[in-house]
Structures are given as C-alpha cells and as structure tokens.
Amino acid sequence: MEHYHYDPETFEYLHPVPCQKNPARPGEYLIPPNSTARKPLSADDCMVAVYQPDIDNWTLEEDHRNKTVYSKADKSELKIETIGPIPDTHTELKPEDEFCNWDEASNQWIHDAEAEHTFKVEIERQWAMSELARSDRALTPDFPVTDEGRIKIMEYREKLRNPARSLSANFPDPSWRPQWPEGVKRPAV
Predict the structure, then answer these.
(1) CA-CA-CA-CA torsion for 81, 85, 89, 92, nearest 10 degrees?
(2) Burial class of residue 112, CB neighbours in 10 A (0-12, 13-18, 19+)
C-alpha cells in the first residue's frame, strides 16, 4: 500500500511513501503522518500539487518560489518565497534601467526619456557647482597662481556658468564639460 507524503506547512506534494504493515493488527497498515491515500495531480512547470485536508483532495497551485520579480511601482526586487501566483503589483519582467515605468496597458516597462534627461541635467549641474566651488579656492589671495592663470580660471568659470552649454548637442553628456585651464595648478578637493 502506498500513500502520498505532503509538507506539513505548505501541504505541497513531496513523494510517495510506502505504508508499513501494522504488526499489532494483521491486515491493517500504519499510515505515515502528513500523507494521504489520494494520488496527487500531475504538475507542470511553475505548478505544484497541494493537498487540501478540508476537502481531502489535491489542487494545482502556481509555484514561483525562488524567482525574482519586480515591483511595478518602484522597480524593487522581491524574491518569491511562498506557493501562489505572482502578486498583481509585481512582474517577472526586469526593468531595463532606473528610468523605466510600468505601463499596464501594454504590460511592459516603458523608458522615460524625459526622466533620464532631467536626472542627467541635475548630475551635470551638481558637477558644475562643485567645479565652481573648487575654482573659488584658486582665486583666493594665498593660492599660488599668476595673473594670466587667474584670467584662465575666470574664463573656465564663465564656461561653467554659461547657460548656453545646455544647448550643446552633447549636453548633458559629460563630454560637454570644459577642461581645467592648462598650466594652472588645480586646487585639491
């Protein structure tokens, strides 16, 4: 005689288990714990047979355990740890980058070019501000620089502040960045 063993917590089918004859009662068998005589349903990929003790039968449930899914709201990763369907708030599709947003209509990630551009503009603005602060130190009276060097630093600072730089075909790509004046000592960070 054979029974079918299931996990005591998840009730998922584990394996067949033979029943031993009861030595105290001939003709009877010892029934292993967490098992049933009902044969489990055959499960395909991403499915698992789960015993339902209240109805003494098996059901097929989705099984995505150990899969990584992504939040449609904030792109955060979630590792599935329980039997059941993937939450409606998540998808198996990995976002391409941080500038994607989930589109329910097309059921896919859509790249947000405007958000990416805004982010890169802010990075370049912060870089320019840090360069302006650094060049401030080069203009202090005790910094070793010639008058010609001071003029070059002032020209450099003008390029950093020039709003037309954002009209450059390369902006906000870092290739637009002006170079520190050649032959002028650069202040330490």
Answers:
(1) 80
(2) middle
